[in-house]
């Protein structure tokens, strides 16, 4: 049987890694797929640039449309990123009835509904395992391995850059800017790190995970997103003293009235497995009704970890080339005409416990005054810590942990607390997730 011919859009880190994995494991991959897989053409910006892979047998071209329109190519692999030209090329490939494999989480999160509708109409597959958590097969696990379950919640560390920064801040007591600079020098962070440290990258990935977990349309605009740039070393230290560790989590939670979608710094119990995930590694916790909690851990980026997922998608597509399009695994796990109307909850409806740090007057009755305001809002306090203030100081720090409360109620209460004469400045508020209790 003739090899399946592949065209690459991009031959950088992921594209080059894909060529290397396909070449090194050629026989093993052919045995799994039933046919050999060959890269025959690749679109690159600079054909003369040195590559991390060999290019023998690959026709390099400067125009990606040549690859998309090449009648000899059956599967197009898009690894150029972005949502401009990448969207146009993917839709053009689908229009040409070519299958697509993409590592582009922004494209799927923002335009996936359009892309999948076009692919369904043309009877082709768009595979995107590598778009979330690099080499961890989390898409397949949720879409296929857990197909018999009702998934309640996903919580994950899905951005290695942010996790590396938080790990270094905690372990070595270094400030955010210092660690970010090192991450850029090491190649963990881009020159413009905003997508990583502001949570946008994680929100793209959470959008995709929530869609395949709950059978809802992709809704990136509804994800509440907070980054890590504003975190202070003292809060990381206080969290440790209280038995917690701060992680930048993406959380998708099915509630009775809808789905919570949020990305933010989160205090996690130090004994929890997610708390032990350090450096640039990723980990995703999935809770489902039948299997309970499962954890998926591994490299979330890099040439060959991501290429591993790209090649796995290629094998899946090759296996299904002759399959009736109506009987293939649905792109978002659920049949297109059976997507849920379950809505995404507003930010104020989300519920969590909270860590609060404030500066208050150091005199009797102050704690009671603050507790009264919180109590009137229905917020109960779990623990209070008051570090010893410097001798002669008139103000002291107060650190509190609360029980679970809606975000809207907490925001209103914090506004009242900050207006108290005994409180100086803004209250630092971080969410706390125990990751044990699930809705019935």
Summarize the structure in words.
The protein has 440 residues and is an alpha/beta fold. The protein is 35% helix and 25% strand. Helix 5 (105-122) links the parallel strand 5 (99-102) and strand 6. The longest helix is centred in the N-terminal third of the chain and has 18 residues, at 105-122. The protein is elongated. It starts with a strand and ends in an 8-residue tail after the last strand. The model has no long low-confidence stretch (mean pLDDT 94).
Q: Which descriptors would you attach to this protein?
A:
440 residues; alpha/beta; Rossmann fold; Dihydrodipicolinate Reductase, domain 2; Alpha-Beta Plaits; 3 domains; eleven-stranded mixed beta sheet; six-stranded parallel beta sheet; 25% strand
Outline the secondary-structure elements.
Elements: E1 4-9, H1 13-24, H2 26-33, E2 37-43, E3 59-61, H3 64-69, E4 75-78, H4 85-95, E5 99-102, H5 105-122, E6 126-127, H6 138-145, E7 151-157, H7 160-172, H8 176-186, H9 194-197, H10 200-214, E8 224-225, H11 233-241, E9 244-255, E10 258-269, E11 281-288, E12 292-299, H12 303-319, E13 351-361, H13 366-376, E14 381-385, E15 395-402, E16 405-406, H14 407-418, E17 423-432
Parallel strand pairs: 1-2, 1-4, 2-3, 4-5, 5-6, 8-10, 10-17
Antiparallel strand pairs: 7-9, 7-11, 9-10, 11-12, 13-15, 13-16, 13-17, 14-15
Helix pairs in contact: 1-12, 2-12, 4-5, 5-10, 7-8
């Amino acid at each position: 049987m003739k090899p399946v011919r592949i065209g690459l859009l991009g031959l950088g880190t992921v594209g080059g890694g894909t060529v290397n994995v396909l070449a090194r494991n050629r026989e093993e991959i052919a045995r799994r797929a039933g046919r050999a897989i060959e890269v025959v053409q690749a679109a690159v910006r600079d054909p003369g640039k040195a590559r991390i892979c060999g290019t023998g047998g690959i026709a390099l071209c400067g125009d990606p449309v040549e690859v998309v329109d090449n009648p000899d190519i059956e599967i197009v692999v898009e690894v150029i990123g972005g949502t401009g030209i990448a969207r146009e090329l993917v839709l053009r490939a689908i229009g040409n009835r070519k299958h697509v494999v993409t590592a582009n989480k922004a494209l799927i999160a923002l335009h996936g509904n359009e892309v999948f509708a076009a692919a369904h109409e043309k009877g082709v597959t768009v595979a995107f395992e590598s778009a979330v958590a690099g080499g961890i097969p989390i898409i397949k696990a949720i879409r296929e391995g857990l197909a018999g379950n009702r998934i309640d919640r996903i919580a994950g560390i899905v951005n290695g850059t942010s996790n590396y920064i938080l790990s270094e801040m905690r372990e070595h007591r270094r400030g955010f800017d210092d660690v970010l600079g090192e991450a850029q020098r090491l190649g963990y962070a881009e020159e413009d790190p905003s997508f990583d440290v502001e949570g946008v990258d994680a929100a793209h990935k959470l959008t995709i995970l929530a869609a395949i977990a709950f059978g809802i349309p992709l809704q990136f605009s509804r994800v509440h997103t907070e980054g890590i740039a504003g975190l202070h070393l003292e809060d990381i230290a206080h969290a440790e003293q209280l038995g917690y560790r701060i992680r930048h989590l993406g959380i998708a939670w099915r509630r009775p009235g809808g789905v919570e979608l949020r990305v933010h710094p989160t205090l996690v119990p130090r004994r929890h497995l997610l708390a032990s995930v350090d450096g640039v590694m990723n980990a995703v916790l999935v809770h489902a009704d039948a299997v309970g909690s499962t954890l998926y851990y591994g490299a979330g980026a890099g040439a060959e970890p991501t290429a591993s997922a790209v090649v796995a998608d290629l094998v899946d597509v090759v296996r299904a080339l002759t399959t009736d399009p109506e009987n293939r695994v649905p792109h978002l796990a659920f049949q297109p005409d059976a997507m849920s109307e379950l809505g995404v909850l507003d930010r104020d409806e989300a519920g969590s416990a909270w860590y609060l740090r404030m500066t208050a007057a150091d005199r009797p009755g102050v704690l009671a005054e603050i507790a009264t305001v919180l109590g009137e809002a229905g917020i109960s306090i779990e623990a209070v810590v008051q570090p010893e203030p410097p001798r002669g100081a008139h103000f002291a720090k107060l650190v509190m942990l609360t029980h679970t409360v809606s975000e809207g109620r907490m925001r209103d209460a914090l506004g009242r607390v900050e207006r108290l004469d005994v409180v100086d400045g803004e209250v630092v508020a971080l969410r706390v997730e125990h990751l044990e209790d699930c809705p019935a």
